[in-house]
From TrEMBL:
Source organism superkingdom: Bacteria
Key word Hydrolase present: yes
UniProt entry keywords in alphabetical sequence: Hydrolase
InterPro entries noted in UniProt: Amidohydro-rel, Aro_Compnd_Degr_Hydrolases, GLI/LigI, Metal_Hydrolase
Claim: Hydrolase is one of the keywords in the record: yes
Protein name: Amidohydrolase
Pfam families per record: Amidohydro_2
GO MF assignments: hydrolase activity
Domain Amidohydrolase-related: 20-285
Signal peptide start and end residues: none
Length: 293
């Protein structure tokens, strides 16, 4: 794992009090990778203390810890991470139709408030279980994070329109084949958002961009279009510790990355919506007070 030491300037854009990082991963000792997923990230694994330092550096107050693919549907590491982080953290777990109610109860007691669909290589729960996971999430008033190759969003739109839960289209939609702000894929995103229970997540831009940094102009154009259409339906995540960064050259400067992505929003009012108000609605969080999520 390439966890770069936190140094240098913080972001130029000041994050408002109550900011929620809606997408990050954490790994603790004693929880090996499970069959079917990728290996644990190489090197020193990021822990609660490292992430707390990251929070202080960027100005984050609350966090959503997302189940990593390495652990597949074994959420024991996620539960341990939530216990380590305490009341500022909530979790998004990986589970399917076979998961028992007692396990879901244990996840809820630990602070889990969402489910993860990841229909890409290494993902623990794919779109084949979308409706089953949505049914179980809706019954608990949990949200669902949905990630797939966004190039196929028109194919999946009819199913996504039927979701009962609040849900978020993950990682800038991951439009791997490219999409235009006025193209059919973004029109589909607008329709899904307008249905009333869909959000769009700014996270991991470097995974979705075809042109690359530092500006990520292709994803920037799409993200600006969606934020202009529905600023009340965008959330942000750091995607720390950037699991897909393979070398130091790939590893982003988080201050610069934060400034770049939040710079796609027009003003401080929009940033407050995206960083505080919108995630509170999507994840069912209480209004911010110091010391808890």
């Amino acid at each position: 794992m390439l966890v770069r030491m936190l140094s240098g300037r913080p972001p130029k854009i000041a994050l408002p009090r109550g900011t929620v990082d809606t997408q990050m991963h954490m790994y603790l000792p004693g929880f090996p990778a499970r069959p079917g997923g990728p290996a644990l990230p190489a090197g020193a694994l990021p822990d609660a203390d490292q992430y707390r330092e990251f929070m202080r550096w960027l100005g984050i107050d609350r966090v959503i810890i997302t189940q990593g693919n390495a652990h597949q549907r074994d959420n024991a590491n996620l539960i341990a991470c939530l216990n380590a982080m305490g009341p500022v953290a909530r979790g998004v777990a990986a589970f399917g139709a076979e998961t028992s109610e007692s396990e879901l109860n244990a996840l809820s007691a630990a602070g889990v408030i969402g489910a993860r669909i990841m229909d890409l290589p290494g993902g623990a729960v794919g779109l084949d279980e979308l409706e089953a996971v949505d049914e179980r999430a809706a019954a608990r008033d949990w949200m669902v994070a949905v990630q797939f190759d966004g190039s196929n969003i028109l194919e999946h739109e009819p199913r996504l329109k039927t979701l009962k839960s609040r849900w978020v289209l993950d990682h800038h939609g991951k439009f791997f084949s490219g999409a235009a702000p006025d193209g059919p894929e973004i029109a589909a995103v607008r329709r899904l958002i307008d249905a009333g229970n869909c959000w769009f997540k700014f996270a991991g831009v470097y995974e979705s961009s075809k042109v690359g940094g530092p500006d990520f102009a292709d994803v920037a154009a799409l993200s600006r279009a969606i934020a202009a259409h529905a600023p009340e339906r965008v959330v942000w995540g750091s995607n720390w510790p950037h699991n897909l960064a393979k070398t130091n050259a790939d590893y982003p400067d988080d201050a610069e990355l934060t400034d770049t992505v939040l710079g796609w929003l027009p003003d401080a009012k929009a940033r407050h919506r995206v960083l505080v108000e919108n995630p509170e609605r999507l994840f069912g969080l209480k209004p911010f007070t110091d010391g808890g999520a």
